[in-house]
Amino acid sequence: MARLLELDAEVLASYLAELTGLLAQRVGPGPARVLDLGSGPGAGSLALARQFPAARVTAVDISAHLLHRLQKQAAAHGVADRISTVEANLDEPWTKITENKGPFDLIWAASFIHHVSDPARTFTRAFEQLRPGGLIAVTEMDFFPRFLPEDTGAGEPGLEDRLHQATNTQPPHQWTGPLARAGFVVEELRPFEIRLDSTQTGPALNAYAQVCLAKLRSHATDVLEADDLAALDALLDETQPQSIARRSDLSVRTTRTTWLARRP
């Protein structure tokens, strides 16, 4: 998962820059304190540190391993002095966060809120940690990105569509109501339609597609037809001529949605 998240940030760097640029327009004068909830290996923390060069970012995650990766990346990018980490389970009391560096000017929660056991409680706690006038940005992705052309040369055309239909079984996340009930004023619901080819993403695209499709393959054994499973396995086999690792016709297509809400 750490590798997937790091590749996601590398391939979708232009999207991250667009999103953090939007936050810079909305948050007002450069924020001094930023909180990254469910930071993982730190793609959001690093993007926020780049966008707000005077800010100090507190990254919170339950995984010591992912936070260690974040610290290494922060050092490599020269921002280790501005990114601190807190190992904490956000389903438990936020004592470690309260003791740290709040109140915060900006809270970032990317592809994370759906993991907590009680989103309403998490939003209430985030509200308490945000200064009056501060902004929270909650982002979710519609599902795993798509990468393949309609006809991959392996199996019947439309393989990726069938894979997504078989494995994407959860309803879309909706956070407008829970944010409002926690006291936030929701200012915007912003979809980002991401459509990038290999010239726009760089060489990491093939590895990103490989990791994402392998992850979906692990959930597809009992829900996809045998012929489609065989075709997908051939695409994931790096020794095959039609392998994802070798292809030059990949692109990344996905949608991310951000809720921007303010504490009055």
Jot down its keywords:
single chain; 264 residues; alpha/beta; Rossmann fold; 7-stranded mixed sheet; 11 helices; 7 strands; 40% helix
Rg value: 19 Å
Percent of residues in beta strands: 15-25%
Which regions contain 5 or more consecutive residues with pLDDT less than 50?
none
The side-by-side strand order for the widest beta sheet comes to 3-2-1-4-5-7-6
**Based on helices, strands and strand pairing, what is the structural class?**
alpha/beta
**Helix fraction by DSSP (H/I, runs of at least 4):** 25-40%
Please name the fourth-level CATH homologous superfamily: Vaccinia Virus protein VP39
Description:
This protein is an alpha/beta fold and 264 residues long. It has one domain (2-262): Rossmann fold, CATH 3.40.50. The protein has helices at residues 2-11, 13-27, 43-51, 64-76, 95-98, 119-129, 159-167, 176-181, 198-201, 205-217, 226-236, and strands spanning 33-37, 56-61, 83-87, 104-110, 130-141, 185-197, 251-262. A 7-stranded mixed sheet has the order 3-2-1-4-5-7-6. The chain starts with a helix and ends with a strand. The mean pLDDT is 95.
